Amino acid sequence: MPGTEVVGSVLMVVAIIGYLLGTIPSGVLLAKVMGLGDLRSIGSGNIGATNVLRTGNKKAAALTLLLDAAKGAVAVAVGYAMGGELAAQVAAIAAMVGHCFPIWLKFKGGKGVATYFGVIFALAWPAGLAAGAIWLVTAGVSRYSSLAALLAAGWTPIAAVLLGQGQIFGLGCVLGLLIYLRHWANIQRLRKGTETKIGGAKT
Asked: HSE of 173 in the Cβ direction (CA atoms, 13 Å)?
Protein backbone atom coordinates (compact mmCIF):
# COMPACT_ATOMS: atom_id res chain seq x y z
CA MET A 1 0.00 0.00 0.00
CA PRO A 2 1.44 3.38 -0.93
CA GLY A 3 1.90 5.84 1.90
CA THR A 4 -0.39 8.79 2.50
CA GLU A 5 2.29 11.22 1.32
CA VAL A 6 2.74 9.31 -1.94
CA VAL A 7 -1.00 9.20 -2.57
CA GLY A 8 -1.29 12.89 -1.79
CA SER A 9 1.54 13.70 -4.20
CA VAL A 10 -0.05 11.67 -6.98
CA LEU A 11 -3.40 13.37 -6.48
CA MET A 12 -1.74 16.78 -6.54
CA VAL A 13 0.07 16.01 -9.79
CA VAL A 14 -3.10 14.59 -11.32
CA ALA A 15 -5.05 17.67 -10.26
CA ILE A 16 -2.49 19.97 -11.88
CA ILE A 17 -2.46 17.96 -15.11
CA GLY A 18 -6.26 17.81 -15.16
CA TYR A 19 -6.55 21.55 -14.59
CA LEU A 20 -4.05 22.40 -17.33
CA LEU A 21 -5.82 20.11 -19.79
CA GLY A 22 -9.11 21.75 -18.89
CA THR A 23 -7.71 25.23 -19.53
CA ILE A 24 -7.07 24.53 -23.23
CA PRO A 25 -9.50 27.00 -24.89
CA SER A 26 -10.54 24.84 -27.84
CA GLY A 27 -13.21 27.21 -29.10
CA VAL A 28 -11.01 30.30 -28.90
CA LEU A 29 -8.13 28.57 -30.70
CA LEU A 30 -10.34 27.11 -33.43
CA ALA A 31 -12.10 30.42 -34.01
CA LYS A 32 -8.75 32.12 -34.43
CA VAL A 33 -7.29 29.44 -36.72
CA MET A 34 -10.43 29.31 -38.86
CA GLY A 35 -10.66 33.10 -39.16
CA LEU A 36 -13.89 33.45 -37.20
CA GLY A 37 -12.67 36.26 -34.98
CA ASP A 38 -12.30 36.56 -31.21
CA LEU A 39 -14.90 34.21 -29.76
CA ARG A 40 -15.05 36.26 -26.59
CA SER A 41 -16.48 39.21 -28.52
CA ILE A 42 -19.11 37.15 -30.35
CA GLY A 43 -22.62 36.37 -29.09
CA SER A 44 -22.54 35.64 -25.37
CA GLY A 45 -18.74 35.82 -25.24
CA ASN A 46 -18.66 32.24 -23.98
CA ILE A 47 -15.82 30.01 -25.21
CA GLY A 48 -17.91 26.86 -25.68
CA ALA A 49 -19.41 25.10 -28.68
CA THR A 50 -22.82 26.79 -28.40
CA ASN A 51 -21.26 30.20 -28.88
CA VAL A 52 -18.97 28.94 -31.65
CA LEU A 53 -22.16 27.86 -33.46
CA ARG A 54 -23.23 31.52 -33.48
CA THR A 55 -20.41 32.25 -35.90
CA GLY A 56 -22.37 30.17 -38.41
CA ASN A 57 -19.57 27.61 -38.70
CA LYS A 58 -21.05 24.24 -37.74
CA LYS A 59 -17.76 22.44 -38.34
CA ALA A 60 -15.96 24.68 -35.85
CA ALA A 61 -18.76 24.18 -33.32
CA ALA A 62 -18.62 20.39 -33.69
CA LEU A 63 -14.83 20.37 -33.35
CA THR A 64 -15.05 22.56 -30.24
CA LEU A 65 -17.57 20.18 -28.71
CA LEU A 66 -15.38 17.15 -29.43
CA LEU A 67 -12.16 18.76 -28.23
CA ASP A 68 -13.70 20.11 -25.02
CA ALA A 69 -15.12 16.66 -24.27
CA ALA A 70 -11.83 14.99 -25.24
CA LYS A 71 -9.73 17.04 -22.84
CA GLY A 72 -11.98 15.93 -20.00
CA ALA A 73 -11.75 12.30 -21.06
CA VAL A 74 -7.96 12.51 -21.41
CA ALA A 75 -7.67 14.00 -17.92
CA VAL A 76 -9.65 11.06 -16.52
CA ALA A 77 -7.49 8.59 -18.44
CA VAL A 78 -4.35 10.17 -16.99
CA GLY A 79 -5.87 9.95 -13.53
CA TYR A 80 -6.66 6.26 -13.94
CA ALA A 81 -3.15 5.57 -15.20
CA MET A 82 -1.49 7.39 -12.32
CA GLY A 83 -3.67 6.48 -9.37
CA GLY A 84 -6.86 4.59 -10.16
CA GLU A 85 -10.47 5.61 -9.51
CA LEU A 86 -9.81 8.30 -6.89
CA ALA A 87 -7.17 10.00 -9.03
CA ALA A 88 -9.46 9.80 -12.06
CA GLN A 89 -12.23 11.60 -10.17
CA VAL A 90 -9.81 14.25 -8.92
CA ALA A 91 -8.64 14.77 -12.51
CA ALA A 92 -12.27 15.07 -13.63
CA ILE A 93 -13.00 17.85 -11.14
CA ALA A 94 -9.74 19.61 -12.00
CA ALA A 95 -10.47 19.49 -15.73
CA MET A 96 -13.91 20.99 -15.18
CA VAL A 97 -12.48 23.75 -13.00
CA GLY A 98 -9.80 24.39 -15.61
CA HIS A 99 -12.37 24.76 -18.37
CA CYS A 100 -14.60 27.04 -16.34
CA PHE A 101 -11.77 29.10 -14.83
CA PRO A 102 -8.74 28.98 -17.17
CA ILE A 103 -5.73 30.93 -15.97
CA TRP A 104 -4.84 31.86 -19.56
CA LEU A 105 -8.14 33.72 -20.02
CA LYS A 106 -8.11 35.53 -16.66
CA PHE A 107 -10.29 32.75 -15.20
CA LYS A 108 -13.16 33.61 -17.56
CA GLY A 109 -13.94 30.28 -19.21
CA GLY A 110 -16.85 28.24 -20.44
CA LYS A 111 -19.79 26.63 -18.71
CA GLY A 112 -18.29 23.15 -18.74
CA VAL A 113 -21.01 21.15 -20.47
CA ALA A 114 -18.91 19.40 -23.13
CA THR A 115 -16.10 18.74 -20.66
CA TYR A 116 -18.69 17.39 -18.23
CA PHE A 117 -19.89 14.88 -20.81
CA GLY A 118 -16.29 13.91 -21.54
CA VAL A 119 -15.40 13.14 -17.94
CA ILE A 120 -18.67 11.35 -17.18
CA PHE A 121 -18.37 9.15 -20.25
CA ALA A 122 -14.73 8.32 -19.42
CA LEU A 123 -15.54 7.51 -15.80
CA ALA A 124 -18.71 5.49 -16.42
CA TRP A 125 -19.83 5.24 -20.04
CA PRO A 126 -23.36 3.98 -19.28
CA ALA A 127 -23.96 7.11 -17.23
CA GLY A 128 -22.35 9.13 -20.01
CA LEU A 129 -24.79 7.70 -22.52
CA ALA A 130 -27.67 8.51 -20.18
CA ALA A 131 -26.43 12.09 -19.82
CA GLY A 132 -26.20 12.45 -23.58
CA ALA A 133 -29.67 11.01 -24.08
CA ILE A 134 -31.17 13.40 -21.51
CA TRP A 135 -29.48 16.34 -23.21
CA LEU A 136 -30.59 15.32 -26.70
CA VAL A 137 -34.22 14.71 -25.76
CA THR A 138 -34.51 17.93 -23.75
CA ALA A 139 -32.79 20.02 -26.42
CA GLY A 140 -34.90 18.46 -29.14
CA VAL A 141 -38.16 19.16 -27.36
CA SER A 142 -37.43 22.54 -25.78
CA ARG A 143 -34.74 23.93 -28.12
CA TYR A 144 -32.97 25.28 -25.04
CA SER A 145 -29.33 24.19 -24.80
CA SER A 146 -29.05 25.52 -21.26
CA LEU A 147 -32.13 23.64 -20.02
CA ALA A 148 -30.83 20.46 -21.62
CA ALA A 149 -27.50 20.87 -19.82
CA LEU A 150 -29.19 21.56 -16.49
CA LEU A 151 -31.46 18.52 -16.68
CA ALA A 152 -28.61 16.28 -17.81
CA ALA A 153 -26.40 17.43 -14.94
CA GLY A 154 -29.22 17.11 -12.44
CA TRP A 155 -30.38 13.63 -13.43
CA THR A 156 -27.08 11.95 -14.33
CA PRO A 157 -26.05 11.13 -10.73
CA ILE A 158 -29.39 9.35 -10.24
CA ALA A 159 -29.08 7.60 -13.59
CA ALA A 160 -25.58 6.48 -12.61
CA VAL A 161 -26.90 4.76 -9.48
CA LEU A 162 -29.72 3.10 -11.41
CA LEU A 163 -27.20 1.85 -13.98
CA GLY A 164 -24.90 0.36 -11.35
CA GLN A 165 -22.38 3.20 -11.55
CA GLY A 166 -22.88 4.47 -8.01
CA GLN A 167 -19.16 5.17 -7.57
CA ILE A 168 -19.61 8.45 -9.45
CA PHE A 169 -22.74 9.61 -7.62
CA GLY A 170 -20.85 12.04 -5.36
CA LEU A 171 -18.72 13.30 -8.20
CA GLY A 172 -21.80 13.75 -10.39
CA CYS A 173 -23.40 15.89 -7.69
CA VAL A 174 -20.29 18.07 -7.34
CA LEU A 175 -19.93 18.56 -11.09
CA GLY A 176 -23.66 19.10 -11.44
CA LEU A 177 -23.49 21.88 -8.85
CA LEU A 178 -20.71 23.53 -10.85
CA ILE A 179 -22.83 23.29 -14.02
CA TYR A 180 -25.75 24.95 -12.20
CA LEU A 181 -23.54 27.73 -10.84
CA ARG A 182 -22.11 28.42 -14.31
CA HIS A 183 -25.63 28.54 -15.73
CA TRP A 184 -27.10 30.81 -13.07
CA ALA A 185 -27.78 33.64 -15.52
CA ASN A 186 -29.40 31.15 -17.91
CA ILE A 187 -31.60 29.87 -15.10
CA GLN A 188 -32.83 33.40 -14.43
CA ARG A 189 -33.62 33.92 -18.13
CA LEU A 190 -35.41 30.58 -18.33
CA ARG A 191 -37.58 31.63 -15.40
CA LYS A 192 -38.39 34.94 -17.13
CA GLY A 193 -38.96 33.33 -20.51
CA THR A 194 -36.19 35.38 -22.12
CA GLU A 195 -33.66 32.61 -22.74
CA THR A 196 -32.62 32.28 -26.39
CA LYS A 197 -33.27 28.96 -28.07
CA ILE A 198 -30.74 26.93 -30.03
CA GLY A 199 -29.89 28.84 -33.18
CA GLY A 200 -30.64 32.22 -31.61
CA ALA A 201 -28.28 35.16 -31.49
CA LYS A 202 -27.47 35.23 -27.79
CA THR A 203 -27.39 33.19 -24.62
From this structure: 6
